[in-house]
Amino acid sequence: MSPLNGSGANPLRDPADRRLPRIAGPSGLVIFGVTGDLSRKKLMPAVYDLANRGLLPPGFSLVGFARRDWEDEDFAQVVHDAVKEHARTPFREEVWQQLIQGMRFVQGTFDDDEAFERLRSTIDELDKQQGTGGNFAFYLSVPPGAFPVVIQQLKKSGLADQSKGSWRRAVIEKPFGHDLKSAEELNKVVHEVFEPDQVFRIDHYLGKETVQNILALRFANTMFEPIWNRSYVDHVQITMAEDIGIGGRAGYYDGIGAARDVIQNHLLQLLALTAMEEPSSFGADALAREKTKVLGAVRLPKDLGADTVRGQYAAGWQGGEKVIGYLQEDGIDPESKTDTYAALKLEIDNRRWAGVPFYLRTGKRLGRRVTEIAVVFQRAPHSPFDHTATEELGQNAIVIRVQPDEGITVRFGSKVPGTSMEIRDVSMDFAYGESFTESSPEAYERLILDVLLGDANLFPRTEEVELSWKILDPVEEYWDEHGRPAQYKSGTWGPAEADEMLARDGRSWRRP
Ligand SMILES: NC(=O)c1ccc[n+]([C@@H]2O[C@H](COP(=O)([O-])OP(=O)(O)OC[C@H]3O[C@@H](n4cnc5c(N)ncnc54)[C@H](OP(=O)(O)O)[C@@H]3O)[C@@H](O)[C@H]2O)c1
C-alpha cells in the first residue's frame, strides 16, 4: 500500500527535503477526446513518461472516453503506439505492463447520459481493483465548443462529486473562450460544478522549464532584479514565431487567428512572469495575485491603427520549398480576414514599468521557429569611445530563449582585440543542454503531474484569463472594423507594417 494519501502529500516525507521526487498519490486520469491529436501526441506519451520516471502511483489508472467502438484492448494498443512514437523516455516493457493494468475505454458521445453512467461504474470498479481512492482528474481534450456539455455531464452523472477524503479535478484545454464574454460564460458553467481549486486551465507554456526559469532568473539571483525596471530597461520584446503554416487545422484556426491563439494566453502569461513583482512564495495564490496585478495594469496603445499590426501569410519559400498562402490553404475561405501574424505594443501602468513598451508578436510561416523574451536595456548614458568605435554601440540585452535551443543569452559590448578602442556586441550564453545532464520533461508531463498532486501554480486562474481577454478584445474589435490583414511573404519576418511600428519608436525587431 502506498504511504501517499489522497491529497498527494506524503506524511512520511520530510517536506523540507526537496530532493525527493514528487510522486502522485493514488489516482486516475480520464481523458475525454482521447482519439484526438493532442491526446495521441502529448497526453498519452506524457502519462507513460511519468510512469517511467516512477512518478505515478502503482495503481494509476487511465480511462479513455471517445466515440469509437473500441474495447479496452484496442485502446491499449492505441496508447502503446502513441507512446512508442512520441514518448520522451525509452520504452520499458515492465512499466508498460504495470500501466496497462489500469487502462480502460468507455465508448460514447458527450450528450449520452448512459455513457457517463458507464464511466461512473468504470471508475468505481477501478477504485476497488486499482486502489485509486476515488481520486480522478477529468481532462477535457475536446473541441472548445464541447467544454460546457462535458462539464455539465460530469455534474449530472455525479462524477464531479468529491466524497470525503477524495478529490475530483477538471483540466480544461485552451482556448478558454473566444473573447471576454464567452470566457465569462464558460467560467460560470465551470464554477457551477467545480470549486476554483478543482479547476486546472492548461496553458502548456507554463509547463516549460524555460518559462519557470524566468522566475528563477529574476528572484533567485541578486544581479538582475535591480536593473529590471524603467530606469534601465528600454523595452521588452516577446516573440513566438512558427515556421509552419496552419497544416490540417483550418477548421480550428480560421476565425480564431494568431492573436487569440497565442497572444491572449501564452504571450500575456510570458509578459506577466517577466513584469510582475516578486511573489511572497511560489505558491499558487501568491503567484496568481502578482500575475493578476500586473495584467490589470496593462494598457493598450491609444492609436490601435498605428500600434497593432495583423498579417496573413502569402505564398513564398520555406525551408527550400515553395509554399502556398493562407487564403489558398484547404478549407480556408478565400475572403478570410483571420490573422496569421499579430503584433501589439503594450505598456504597463505601474511605477516599475511606466513608459517602457512591451512589444508582443507571433506568427506562422515566419523566418524561424523561435520563442524568446528579450529585455533590451537603454544605451550607456555617455560613451567615452565615440571617436574610435566603428559602429554605434549596441544595446545590452538579456534574452530568455524559451524554445528551441533553450537557455539565456546576455548581450553586451566588448573591445575588439587590436590597438584601437573598437567595441562590438558579443554574447554570453547559458544553454540547458550544456549545463545540465537531465533533459527537460515535456510541459504536459509537468502539468499532468501537477494536476494529480493538486499543485495549481502553473495554471492560469479565472481572473487572469478574463483580464487577458479584456486586453485583447478592443484590438480584435478594431481589426474587425478596419480593413484586412497585411500580406507577408512566407519565410519572412512578417508584414512591413510591423517593422514600421517599431521604426516609429526608433527601434527594430530582433531577428533571432
Ligand atoms: N492539437 C494540439 O496540438 C492542441 C494544442 C493546444 C490545445 N489544443 C486543444 O486541445 C483540445 C483537443 O484538441 P485536438 O487537436 O486533440 O482535437 P481533435 O483532434 O479534433 O480531437 C477532438 C476529440 O474530441 C472527440 N469528440 C468530438 N466531439 C465529440 C462528441 N460529441 N462526443 C465524443 N467525443 C467527441 C473526438 O472523438 P472522435 O475521434 O470520435 O471524433 C476526438 O477524440 C482542443 O480544445 C484544442 O483546442 C490542441
Automatic annotation (TrEMBL):
UniProt keywords, alphabetically: Carbohydrate metabolism, Glucose metabolism, NADP, Oxidoreductase
Pathway: Carbohydrate degradation; pentose phosphate pathway; D-ribulose 5-phosphate from D-glucose 6-phosphate (oxidative stage): step 1/3
Family matches, as Pfam families: G6PD_C, G6PD_N
Region (Disordered): 1-20, 485-512
Chemical reaction(s) catalysed: D-glucose 6-phosphate + NADP(+) = 6-phospho-D-glucono-1,5-lactone + NADPH + H(+)
Segments forming domain Glucose-6-phosphate dehydrogenase NAD-binding: 30-213
Any one GO cellular component localisation term in the record: cytosol
E.C. number: 1.1.1.49
Occurrences of domain Glucose-6-phosphate dehydrogenase C-terminal (ranges): 215-510
First-level EC class: oxidoreductase
RNA-binding is among the record's keywords: no
Biological processes per GO annotation: glucose metabolic process; pentose-phosphate shunt, oxidative branch
Residues where substrate binds: 204, 208, 242, 261, 364
InterPro entries attached to this UniProt entry: G6P_DH, G6P_DH_AS, G6P_DH_C, G6P_DH_NAD-bd, NAD(P)-bd_dom_sf
GO molecular function, one term: glucose-6-phosphate dehydrogenase activity
Comp. bias regions, Basic and acidic residues: 501-512
Highest taxon in the source lineage: Bacteria
Binding site for NADP(+): 67, 174
Active-site residues (renumbered): 266 (proton acceptor)
Summary of the function given for this chain in its UniProt record: Catalyzes the oxidation of glucose 6-phosphate to 6-phosphogluconolactone.
Assigned protein family: Belongs to the glucose-6-phosphate dehydrogenase family.
Matching PANTHER family: GLUCOSE-6-PHOSPHATE 1-DEHYDROGENASE, GLUCOSE-6-PHOSPHATE 1-DEHYDROGENASE G6PD
Annotated protein name in UniProt: Glucose-6-phosphate 1-dehydrogenase
The organism of origin for this protein: Streptomyces griseoluteus
Gene: zwf
